[in-house]
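[audit] Reproducing an earlier prediction to check determinism. Same input, same settings, fresh worker. If the tokens differ from the archived copy the diff job will pick it up downstream; this log only records the rerun itself.
[audit] input (78 residues):
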Amino acid sequence: MKVELDEKVAGITHRDTHSKALLNSDMDAFLKYKKRKQKMLDQKNTNKSVSELKEELHDLESEITQIKEMITLLITNK
């Protein structure tokens, strides 16, 4: 159940009678919030992907170094 507020607050038009929560009916603000949140999640995922790629590159460099050392040992021990 909704109760009208005596004092108007931007975007807030009702108060829930059970929980006393202020109810925001400003859909534009809500959609902007959702876009900002999604953008932050996308950026976080991009940063994670870059970090994973850097780690994978480091692992590959280490493996190549090990292979070079093994080849050098094989050549010198012939």
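[audit] rerun output stored. Observation attached for the diff report: The beta strands are 2-9, 12-16, 22-24.
[audit] end
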